[in-house]
Write a structure and sequence with these properties.
Layout (H helix, E strand, L loop, with lengths): L2 H8 E4 L4 E4 L1 H25 L3 H21 L3 E4 L5 E3 L2 H12 L1 H17 L9 H13 L12 H27 L15 H21 L2 H15 L1
Antiparallel strand pairs: 1-2, 3-4
């Protein structure tokens, strides 16, 4: 098999735009590789550290949270025309890892998630490095902000979640102003053109946030998450 055949299995090339995007097969391989590396790290940690059970458990739960976020991000309830979507609570699982384990694990897991998002669904179109950071690395890594709320009451999970998703929107909006204003629809009110990136990005982020908050305040969900937290952190 030629190298070009191998590359075409993992990457699509848009000759018109000169950009590359990963295929779904490549995305799955990447996701599996990250999970395997995290599981391998858990086993290595269990041999080298005294806090064997805790360290392995932390990595295992972080890996599961990452996998759940990545899987549910494919369930797009409301897809947006120029990127972004209301998903099946995908941001929540990353935010839970930060809330349970703190800033370090939270940001590491969120950073790994940002890499997966960069490659997901051909979304890895590169204009320049800062655009990639705004649209992916900075934006999704911001979900680790919930780590600052570790050990706080359950209601603070919701507060941390909202701060995290608002910060995600900030980075998307910055990228929108710099790179994507030319894609503003013609039927968008001209008088509101100055806030188009804000309206576009927060329309789906805040809607998912509202749906997630409704989920989190349901008594059965609160009870279930508390039990999972006890298992994950004890």
């Amino acid at each position: 098999m030629l190298l070009s055949d191998v590359l075409s299995f993992f990457f699509n090339h848009d000759e018109e735009w000169g950009s590359y995007s990963i295929t779904k097969a490549g995305t799955i391989v990447l996701a599996v590789l990250i999970l395997v590396l995290m599981i391998g790290a858990a086993f290595l940690t269990s041999r080298k550290q005294r806090n064997v059970r805790l360290s392995a458990k932390t990595l295992a739960f972080a890996g599961v949270g990452l996998a759940l976020s990545f899987a549910t991000s494919y369930v797009k309830i409301i897809p947006m025309p120029y990127g972004g979507s209301v998903t099946l609570f995908s941001m929540l699982f990353i935010c839970l890892i930060g809330y349970w384990y703190g800033v370090k694990i939270g940001f590491i897991t969120a950073l790994a998630y940002s890499v997966l998002q960069f490659f997901q669904d051909g979304g890895s179109y590169i204009l320049d490095p800062f655009q990639v950071c705004c649209d992916y690395f900075f934006a999704f890594t911001a979900l680790g902000i919930t780590g600052f709320f570790k050990g706080k009451k359950y209601n603070m999970l919701i507060v941390g979640y909202w701060i995290a998703i608002i910060m995600r929107g900030v980075f998307h909006t910055i990228g929108g102003y710099i790179y994507w204003m030319e894609y503003m629809p013609e039927n968008f009110p001209a008088s509101l053109s100055a806030i188009y990136p804000i309206v576009y990005n927060y329309s789906y982020i805040l809607l998912e946030g509202i749906l997630t908050t409704i989920l989190l305040v349901l008594p059965p969900v609160k009870k279930a998450l508390r039990k999972v937290q006890q298992i994950a952190t004890n």
